[in-house]
Amino acid sequence: MVRPGGPHRERQNIMSRRITGFTPSGELHLGNYFGAIKPLVDQQVPDRSIVFVSDLHALTLEHDPAEVRRRTLEFATVLLAAGADPARSIFLVQSHVPEHTELHYLLESATGYGEVRRMIQFKEKSRDSDRVRVSLLTYPVLMAADILLYHAGEVPVGADQRQHVELARDIATRFNAAYGPVFTVPHMVNPPVAARIMDLSRPTAKMSKSTSSGGTLRLLDSPDTLRRTVMRAVTDPGSAIEYDPGNRPGIANLLTILAACTGEDPVDAATRFSGYAQLKHAVADAVIATTDPIRHHYAELSHDPESVRKILRDGVIRARLIASDTVSAAKQAIGLLPA
Length: 339
Fold this sequence. Notes:
Blueprint: H1 6-11, E1 18-22, H2 30-42, E2 49-53, H3 65-82, E3 90-93, H4 99-108, H5 113-117, H6 120-126, H7 134-148, E4 154-156, H8 162-179, E5 187-189, H9 223-231, H10 249-262, H11 266-270, H12 276-302, H13 305-334
Parallel strand pairs: 1-2, 2-3, 4-5
Protein backbone atom coordinates (compact mmCIF):
# COMPACT_ATOMS: atom_id res chain seq x y z
CA MET A 1 0.00 0.00 0.00
CA VAL A 2 1.22 3.50 -0.79
CA ARG A 3 1.84 5.47 2.37
CA PRO A 4 -0.50 8.43 2.91
CA GLY A 5 0.97 11.40 1.08
CA GLY A 6 3.91 9.25 -0.09
CA PRO A 7 4.72 10.07 -3.70
CA HIS A 8 2.67 13.27 -3.60
CA ARG A 9 4.57 14.41 -0.52
CA GLU A 10 7.87 13.74 -2.31
CA ARG A 11 6.87 15.69 -5.42
CA GLN A 12 6.74 18.91 -3.44
CA ASN A 13 10.55 19.12 -3.53
CA ILE A 14 11.42 17.08 -6.61
CA MET A 15 12.47 19.83 -8.99
CA SER A 16 15.48 20.66 -6.90
CA ARG A 17 16.46 17.06 -6.16
CA ARG A 18 19.63 16.11 -7.99
CA ILE A 19 21.20 12.66 -8.40
CA THR A 20 24.76 11.70 -9.30
CA GLY A 21 26.15 8.16 -9.60
CA PHE A 22 29.65 6.72 -9.97
CA THR A 23 30.29 3.25 -11.39
CA PRO A 24 33.16 1.54 -9.50
CA SER A 25 35.31 0.57 -12.47
CA GLY A 26 38.77 1.98 -13.07
CA GLU A 27 40.03 4.79 -10.86
CA LEU A 28 38.60 8.24 -10.21
CA HIS A 29 40.66 10.98 -11.82
CA LEU A 30 40.90 14.74 -12.10
CA GLY A 31 38.32 14.89 -14.89
CA ASN A 32 35.82 13.07 -12.66
CA TYR A 33 36.60 15.49 -9.86
CA PHE A 34 35.95 18.69 -11.81
CA GLY A 35 33.23 17.25 -14.01
CA ALA A 36 31.10 15.50 -11.38
CA ILE A 37 32.51 15.36 -7.85
CA LYS A 38 33.24 19.04 -7.19
CA PRO A 39 29.89 20.22 -8.65
CA LEU A 40 27.93 17.81 -6.43
CA VAL A 41 30.01 18.82 -3.40
CA ASP A 42 29.42 22.52 -4.09
CA GLN A 43 25.67 22.07 -4.62
CA GLN A 44 24.70 19.69 -1.81
CA VAL A 45 21.35 20.47 -0.22
CA PRO A 46 19.98 18.35 2.66
CA ASP A 47 17.52 15.68 1.46
CA ARG A 48 17.67 17.00 -2.10
CA SER A 49 21.10 15.72 -3.14
CA ILE A 50 21.59 12.01 -3.82
CA VAL A 51 25.04 10.54 -4.35
CA PHE A 52 25.51 6.84 -4.96
CA VAL A 53 28.06 4.25 -6.06
CA SER A 54 26.40 2.35 -8.90
CA ASP A 55 27.93 -1.06 -8.27
CA LEU A 56 25.22 -2.89 -10.23
CA HIS A 57 26.36 -1.08 -13.38
CA ALA A 58 29.81 -2.61 -12.93
CA LEU A 59 28.33 -6.07 -13.58
CA THR A 60 27.44 -5.42 -17.22
CA LEU A 61 30.92 -6.49 -18.42
CA GLU A 62 33.45 -9.13 -17.40
CA HIS A 63 34.62 -8.33 -13.89
CA ASP A 64 36.40 -9.66 -10.83
CA PRO A 65 33.83 -9.89 -7.98
CA ALA A 66 36.43 -9.10 -5.31
CA GLU A 67 37.58 -6.08 -7.31
CA VAL A 68 34.03 -4.73 -7.62
CA ARG A 69 33.61 -4.96 -3.84
CA ARG A 70 36.98 -3.32 -3.23
CA ARG A 71 36.36 -0.48 -5.65
CA THR A 72 32.85 0.11 -4.32
CA LEU A 73 34.24 0.87 -0.87
CA GLU A 74 37.16 2.80 -2.39
CA PHE A 75 34.86 5.00 -4.48
CA ALA A 76 32.62 5.68 -1.49
CA THR A 77 35.67 6.63 0.57
CA VAL A 78 37.10 8.88 -2.16
CA LEU A 79 33.77 10.68 -2.54
CA LEU A 80 33.63 11.30 1.20
CA ALA A 81 37.26 12.45 1.19
CA ALA A 82 36.49 14.87 -1.65
CA GLY A 83 33.64 16.49 0.26
CA ALA A 84 30.48 14.44 -0.20
CA ASP A 85 28.70 15.21 3.07
CA PRO A 86 26.23 12.64 4.43
CA ALA A 87 24.65 15.45 6.46
CA ARG A 88 23.78 17.27 3.22
CA SER A 89 23.38 14.37 0.78
CA ILE A 90 21.73 10.98 0.78
CA PHE A 91 24.83 8.83 0.28
CA LEU A 92 24.49 5.14 -0.61
CA VAL A 93 25.55 2.10 -2.59
CA GLN A 94 23.06 1.19 -5.31
CA SER A 95 22.76 -2.53 -4.56
CA HIS A 96 22.04 -1.84 -0.88
CA VAL A 97 18.65 -0.39 -1.87
CA PRO A 98 16.62 -3.28 -3.35
CA GLU A 99 14.08 -0.91 -4.86
CA HIS A 100 16.60 -0.10 -7.64
CA THR A 101 16.29 -3.59 -9.10
CA GLU A 102 12.59 -3.88 -8.31
CA LEU A 103 11.79 -0.70 -10.21
CA HIS A 104 14.16 -1.78 -12.97
CA TYR A 105 11.89 -4.73 -13.84
CA LEU A 106 8.73 -2.61 -13.72
CA LEU A 107 10.31 -0.13 -16.14
CA GLU A 108 11.45 -2.94 -18.44
CA SER A 109 7.77 -3.81 -18.70
CA ALA A 110 7.18 -0.35 -20.16
CA THR A 111 10.22 -0.23 -22.47
CA GLY A 112 10.60 -1.54 -26.02
CA TYR A 113 13.44 -3.81 -27.10
CA GLY A 114 14.25 -1.48 -29.98
CA GLU A 115 14.71 1.45 -27.63
CA VAL A 116 17.52 -0.18 -25.68
CA ARG A 117 18.99 -1.99 -28.69
CA ARG A 118 19.80 1.28 -30.41
CA MET A 119 21.67 2.82 -27.47
CA ILE A 120 25.07 3.93 -28.77
CA GLN A 121 27.01 2.66 -25.75
CA PHE A 122 25.48 -0.80 -26.14
CA LYS A 123 26.55 -0.91 -29.78
CA GLU A 124 30.08 0.22 -28.96
CA LYS A 125 30.65 -2.09 -25.98
CA SER A 126 29.09 -5.15 -27.63
CA ARG A 127 30.70 -4.72 -31.05
CA ASP A 128 33.88 -6.69 -30.35
CA SER A 129 32.54 -9.05 -27.70
CA ASP A 130 31.66 -12.72 -28.22
CA ARG A 131 29.63 -12.84 -25.01
CA VAL A 132 27.29 -9.90 -24.57
CA ARG A 133 25.41 -9.86 -21.28
CA VAL A 134 21.72 -9.06 -21.15
CA SER A 135 22.55 -6.60 -18.36
CA LEU A 136 24.56 -4.54 -20.86
CA LEU A 137 21.47 -4.27 -23.04
CA THR A 138 19.15 -3.35 -20.17
CA TYR A 139 21.61 -1.18 -18.25
CA PRO A 140 20.01 2.05 -19.54
CA VAL A 141 16.70 0.92 -18.03
CA LEU A 142 18.41 0.36 -14.68
CA MET A 143 19.87 3.85 -15.01
CA ALA A 144 16.35 5.14 -15.61
CA ALA A 145 15.25 3.34 -12.42
CA ASP A 146 18.11 4.98 -10.51
CA ILE A 147 16.84 8.39 -11.58
CA LEU A 148 13.08 7.89 -11.40
CA LEU A 149 13.22 6.09 -8.06
CA TYR A 150 14.04 9.32 -6.23
CA HIS A 151 11.94 11.74 -8.33
CA ALA A 152 15.14 13.46 -9.41
CA GLY A 153 14.39 16.65 -11.30
CA GLU A 154 18.02 17.24 -12.31
CA VAL A 155 20.60 14.80 -13.68
CA PRO A 156 24.12 16.15 -14.32
CA VAL A 157 25.33 14.20 -17.33
CA GLY A 158 28.09 14.25 -19.93
CA ALA A 159 27.64 13.79 -23.65
CA ASP A 160 28.19 10.02 -23.43
CA GLN A 161 25.18 9.57 -21.14
CA ARG A 162 22.70 12.02 -22.65
CA GLN A 163 20.98 9.33 -24.71
CA HIS A 164 20.37 7.29 -21.55
CA VAL A 165 18.76 10.21 -19.74
CA GLU A 166 16.59 10.83 -22.79
CA LEU A 167 15.47 7.22 -22.51
CA ALA A 168 14.63 7.77 -18.83
CA ARG A 169 12.52 10.76 -19.83
CA ASP A 170 10.73 8.72 -22.51
CA ILE A 171 10.04 5.84 -20.11
CA ALA A 172 8.70 8.16 -17.42
CA THR A 173 6.47 9.99 -19.88
CA ARG A 174 5.12 6.76 -21.36
CA PHE A 175 4.53 5.12 -17.97
CA ASN A 176 2.74 8.20 -16.64
CA ALA A 177 0.53 8.39 -19.74
CA ALA A 178 -0.35 4.69 -19.61
CA TYR A 179 -0.74 4.08 -15.88
CA GLY A 180 -1.00 7.43 -14.11
CA PRO A 181 1.33 10.18 -12.86
CA VAL A 182 3.88 8.19 -10.86
CA PHE A 183 7.25 9.57 -12.01
CA THR A 184 8.91 12.94 -12.31
CA VAL A 185 10.25 13.51 -15.81
CA PRO A 186 13.90 14.51 -15.23
CA HIS A 187 15.89 17.03 -17.19
CA MET A 188 19.60 17.05 -17.95
CA VAL A 189 22.05 19.49 -16.42
CA ASN A 190 25.17 20.19 -18.44
CA PRO A 191 28.45 19.58 -16.62
CA PRO A 192 30.89 22.48 -16.26
CA VAL A 193 33.43 23.22 -18.99
CA ALA A 194 36.17 21.85 -16.73
CA ALA A 195 34.68 18.40 -17.25
CA ARG A 196 36.43 18.36 -20.63
CA ILE A 197 39.82 17.45 -19.21
CA MET A 198 41.58 15.30 -21.75
CA ASP A 199 44.14 12.53 -21.52
CA LEU A 200 47.64 13.97 -21.18
CA SER A 201 49.13 11.37 -23.52
CA ARG A 202 46.26 11.70 -26.05
CA PRO A 203 44.89 15.25 -25.74
CA THR A 204 42.16 14.59 -28.28
CA ALA A 205 40.66 11.83 -26.09
CA LYS A 206 38.76 12.41 -22.85
CA MET A 207 40.52 11.27 -19.68
CA SER A 208 39.08 7.87 -18.75
CA LYS A 209 38.91 5.99 -15.46
CA SER A 210 38.43 2.66 -17.21
CA THR A 211 41.12 2.86 -19.90
CA SER A 212 44.70 2.13 -18.93
CA SER A 213 46.70 5.18 -19.91
CA GLY A 214 49.84 6.98 -18.90
CA GLY A 215 48.04 10.28 -19.30
CA THR A 216 45.49 9.99 -16.50
CA LEU A 217 45.76 12.07 -13.31
CA ARG A 218 44.23 9.81 -10.65
CA LEU A 219 42.96 11.39 -7.46
CA LEU A 220 44.87 8.91 -5.28
CA ASP A 221 48.16 9.11 -7.19
CA SER A 222 51.18 10.26 -5.18
CA PRO A 223 52.55 13.78 -5.79
CA ASP A 224 55.59 12.29 -7.54
CA THR A 225 53.40 10.24 -9.87
CA LEU A 226 51.20 13.23 -10.68
CA ARG A 227 54.24 15.39 -11.44
CA ARG A 228 55.77 12.74 -13.71
CA THR A 229 52.50 12.37 -15.59
CA VAL A 230 52.22 16.11 -16.17
CA MET A 231 55.86 16.53 -17.19
CA ARG A 232 55.43 13.76 -19.79
CA ALA A 233 52.28 15.33 -21.23
CA VAL A 234 52.05 15.53 -25.02
CA THR A 235 52.40 19.09 -26.33
CA ASP A 236 52.11 20.59 -29.81
CA PRO A 237 54.55 21.54 -32.58
CA GLY A 238 56.14 24.94 -32.14
CA SER A 239 56.74 26.87 -28.94
CA ALA A 240 53.73 29.20 -28.68
CA ILE A 241 51.68 28.95 -25.50
CA GLU A 242 48.11 29.88 -26.32
CA TYR A 243 44.67 28.51 -25.58
CA ASP A 244 43.59 27.05 -28.92
CA PRO A 245 41.86 23.66 -28.41
CA GLY A 246 41.25 23.17 -32.12
CA ASN A 247 44.82 23.64 -33.31
CA ARG A 248 46.91 23.15 -30.16
CA PRO A 249 45.05 20.52 -28.09
CA GLY A 250 48.04 19.51 -25.94
CA ILE A 251 48.75 22.99 -24.62
CA ALA A 252 45.04 23.80 -24.39
CA ASN A 253 44.53 20.72 -22.20
CA LEU A 254 47.33 21.76 -19.83
CA LEU A 255 45.85 25.25 -19.60
CA THR A 256 42.39 23.80 -18.98
CA ILE A 257 43.74 21.70 -16.11
CA LEU A 258 45.57 24.70 -14.65
CA ALA A 259 42.47 26.87 -14.92
CA ALA A 260 40.28 24.23 -13.30
CA CYS A 261 42.66 23.93 -10.35
CA THR A 262 43.29 27.66 -9.83
CA GLY A 263 40.07 29.31 -11.01
CA GLU A 264 41.90 31.26 -13.70
CA ASP A 265 40.72 31.79 -17.24
CA PRO A 266 42.82 29.54 -19.51
CA VAL A 267 43.34 32.34 -22.05
CA ASP A 268 44.69 34.66 -19.35
CA ALA A 269 46.79 31.89 -17.82
CA ALA A 270 48.55 31.32 -21.15
CA THR A 271 50.10 34.79 -21.03
CA ARG A 272 52.07 33.96 -17.88
CA PHE A 273 54.33 31.37 -19.46
CA SER A 274 57.25 31.55 -21.83
CA GLY A 275 57.98 27.85 -22.25
CA TYR A 276 56.48 24.37 -22.02
CA ALA A 277 58.53 23.32 -18.99
CA GLN A 278 57.44 26.38 -17.01
CA LEU A 279 53.80 25.67 -17.84
CA LYS A 280 54.07 21.98 -16.93
CA HIS A 281 55.66 22.73 -13.56
CA ALA A 282 52.84 25.17 -12.77
CA VAL A 283 50.22 22.60 -13.80
CA ALA A 284 51.86 19.89 -11.69
CA ASP A 285 51.94 22.21 -8.66
CA ALA A 286 48.27 23.09 -9.11
CA VAL A 287 47.18 19.47 -9.54
CA ILE A 288 49.08 18.37 -6.43
CA ALA A 289 47.64 21.24 -4.39
CA THR A 290 44.13 20.21 -5.51
CA THR A 291 44.46 16.49 -4.82
CA ASP A 292 46.57 16.58 -1.64
CA PRO A 293 43.62 17.27 0.73
CA ILE A 294 41.59 14.48 -0.91
CA ARG A 295 44.45 12.00 -0.66
CA HIS A 296 45.15 12.82 3.00
CA HIS A 297 41.47 12.63 3.98
CA TYR A 298 41.15 9.35 2.09
CA ALA A 299 44.06 7.90 4.08
CA GLU A 300 42.36 8.90 7.34
CA LEU A 301 39.02 7.38 6.35
CA SER A 302 40.69 4.21 5.06
CA HIS A 303 42.03 3.48 8.53
CA ASP A 304 38.44 3.16 9.75
CA PRO A 305 36.43 1.48 6.96
CA GLU A 306 33.64 0.61 9.40
CA SER A 307 32.87 4.33 9.75
CA VAL A 308 32.40 4.52 5.97
CA ARG A 309 30.17 1.45 6.01
CA LYS A 310 28.04 3.02 8.77
CA ILE A 311 27.59 6.15 6.65
CA LEU A 312 26.44 3.93 3.78
CA ARG A 313 24.01 2.02 6.02
CA ASP A 314 22.54 5.29 7.27
CA GLY A 315 22.16 6.43 3.67
CA VAL A 316 20.20 3.31 2.80
CA ILE A 317 17.66 4.04 5.54
CA ARG A 318 17.12 7.57 4.23
CA ALA A 319 17.04 6.45 0.59
CA ARG A 320 14.43 3.77 1.18
CA LEU A 321 12.02 6.28 2.72
CA ILE A 322 11.76 7.73 -0.78
CA ALA A 323 12.35 4.60 -2.84
CA SER A 324 9.76 2.39 -1.17
CA ASP A 325 7.02 4.96 -1.80
CA THR A 326 7.98 5.19 -5.47
CA VAL A 327 7.99 1.43 -6.02
CA SER A 328 4.69 1.01 -4.19
CA ALA A 329 3.09 3.65 -6.38
CA ALA A 330 4.54 2.11 -9.57
CA LYS A 331 3.41 -1.42 -8.64
CA GLN A 332 -0.09 -0.24 -7.87
CA ALA A 333 -0.28 1.81 -11.06
CA ILE A 334 0.94 -0.98 -13.35
CA GLY A 335 -1.59 -3.46 -11.96
CA LEU A 336 0.11 -5.59 -9.30
CA LEU A 337 -1.93 -6.89 -6.37
CA PRO A 338 -0.76 -5.41 -3.04
CA ALA A 339 0.52 -7.92 -0.49
